[in-house]
Design goal:
- By secondary structure, the chain is α/β, with parallel strands linked by helices.
- It folds into four domains: 134 residues, Response regulator (Rossmann fold, 3-Layer(aba) Sandwich), CATH 3.40.50.2300; 165 residues, P-loop containing nucleotide triphosphate hydrolases (Rossmann fold, 3-Layer(aba) Sandwich), CATH 3.40.50.300; 73 residues, Helicase, Ruva Protein, domain 3; 48 residues, Orthogonal Bundle (Arc Repressor Mutant, subunit A), CATH 1.10.10.
- 48% of the residues lie in helices and 12% in strands.
- It has a five-stranded parallel β-sheet with strand order 2-1-3-4-5, with helices on both faces. Strands 7-8-11-6-12 form a five-stranded parallel β-sheet. Strands 9-10 form a two-stranded antiparallel sheet.
- The chain is flat and about 80 Å long.
Length: 469
């Protein structure tokens, strides 16, 4: 049998008011390779559990200030799953059984049999390691299911996923911040699906599309006859989201006049339909999204700061595509496969040149722009062909220029004609920059990619292209 304690030094908290017991256990634990930490009462034990990482707890029941039951209740409330071995006198066995029902792993009676203690601790740690591994596996499987519609494994997008996982099981209001086309609604849906409200409705509202005249009726509903044209009772978006999630997309575009009523609905969890006197209590969570820089809106008083802080209980930043270049190719392949499958187009692939094109472009329209470009490229190809270029199908007169193009244009407009010939091409400058960085990083691809601010896949293609590999 493997000895888990041989693989790392496990931290063992000994909580016992009896000094002789602590001395005995301290000596035994150090001899066995454990790191013992002592607590003389239940209150000190809880304080240590709050501040330090503990692998296993040896817990006495009868202690001053707080007893073993108090400690077990604390562990239950905090959801801590570390193994607890009770140490008790013979006449305390009924109380010990009570602690076992509260989640303790095992109990030992005084005077202690150290051989028995060694076996119990080894088994407890083995089960704890197995439990942690199973928990981690379940977490990974759950994460894959929740984020099944979100493609990408770059550091930037994984960070956003981790933050979403942290908040989704709470009821905090989430403000998703990101440029247009970064997948804000997909993340909102993922947070809803991973929350305790997953069986409730997910109501998506585009605040920018709601006119001022209809805002109150659409958001809060109206009763029959409350105004001209109100021929039936109408349930508003807030009411439709009862027991679920209300997603307020482009919240920064919400009309200033309606913001106060939205704030009250979020704070009080009550709404009043237009034309009614009584209020209705509803239970919902708000996830909102914006591409705005709210600092300007708050300074100009075009957006209420009290509403902003109510919405931003947990901010979640989504990176633009240019900050997650390692995800461009997986996204492009997914969009191509989905489009070909839906339109009975077979065996389309990207050439290396097309891949380089996509990776070099800055994608101001983010994922939405990439998807449109892939679809247009696929339409122009026949079954079994390769896509040699994505950019040629984008409509160049609509594309924003990146900084390198702007710099080149400015040179051609303002420099005297005789000096233009001495200007090196962008490709030459790119080759020199990659070669210099590659040498400075001692030919380490990972470090070189980090220095240049590009993905490793892009670097490998550039090295091959310029003959530097």
């Amino acid at each position: 049998m493997l000895h888990p304690e041989k693989e790392k030094q496990y931290r063992v908290l000994v909580a016992d008011d009896d000094k002789s017991t602590r001395i005995l256990l301290n000596h035994f634990l150090r001899k066995m390779g454990y790191l013992p930490i002592e607590a003389t009462d239940g209150e000190e034990c809880i304080a240590i559990l709050q501040e330090e990482s503990i692998d296993i707890l040896l817990l006495d029941i009868n202690m001053p200030k707080k007893d073993g039951f108090d400690v077990m209740r604390y562990l239950q409330q905090k959801g801590k799953t570390l193994p607890v071995i009770m140490i008790t006198a013979l006449n305390n066995i009924p109380n010990t059984v009570k602690c076992i029902k509260m989640g303790a792993y095992e109990y030992l009676t005084k005077p202690l049999d150290v051989d028995r203690l060694e076996i119990v601790m080894r088994n407890a740690i083995s089960e704890s390691v197995l439990h942690d591994a199973v928990t981690q596996l379940k977490k990974e499987l759950r994460s894959k299911e929740i984020f099944r519609n979100i493609t990408g494994e770059s550091g930037a997008i994984n960070k956003a996923k981790e933050q979403a996982l942290q908040v989704m099981e709470t009821d905090l209001n989430v403000l998703i911040i990101g440029e247009s086309g970064t997948g804000k609604e997909l993340f909102a849906q993922a947070i809803h699906e991973g929350s305790k409200r997953q069986n409730g409705p997910f109501i998506s509202v585009n605040c920018a599309a709601i006119s001022h005249e209809l805002a109150e009726s659409l958001l809060f509903g109206h009763s029959k006859g409350s105004f001209t044209g109100a021929s039936n009772d109408h349930e508003g978006f807030f009411e439709q989201a009862d027991k679920g999630t209300l997603f307020l997309d482009e919240i920064g575009d919400m009309n200033a006049d309606i913001q106060a009523k939205v704030l009250r609905a979020i704070q009080e969890k009550k709404i009043r339909r237009v034309g009614e006197k009584s209020e209705r209590r509803i239970d919902f969570r708000v996830i909102s999204a914006t591409h705005w820089n709210f600092s300007d809106a708050l300074n100009s008083n075009s957006f209420r700061d009290d509403l902003y802080y109510r919405l931003e209980e947990y901010p979640l930043y989504l990176p633009p595509l240019r900050e997650r270049r390692d995800d461009i190719l997986p996204l492009a392949k997914r969009f191509l496969e989905e489009f070909c499958s839906a339109n009975n187009i077979k065996n389309l692939q990207f050439t290396d040149e097309a891949i380089d094109e996509m990776l070099d472009y800055h994608w101001p329209g983010n994922i939405r722009e990439l998807k449109n470009a892939i679809q247009r490229s696929a339409i122009s190809c026949r079954n079994g062909e390769e896509i040699t270029s994505v950019m040629q199908h984008m409509g160049n007169h609509f594309r924003k220029k990146d900084k390198s193009l702007q710099t080149l244009d400015s040179v051609s407009r303002f420099e005297p004609a005789g000096e233009i010939a001495s200007i090196r091409s962008l490709e030459e400058m790119e080759r020199d920059a990659i070669e210099e960085a590659f040498k400075a990083c001692k030919r380490n691809p990972t470090k070189t990619a980090q220095v240049l601010g590009i993905g490793r896949a892009t670097l490998y293609r550039k090295l091959k292209k310029f003959g530097l590999n």
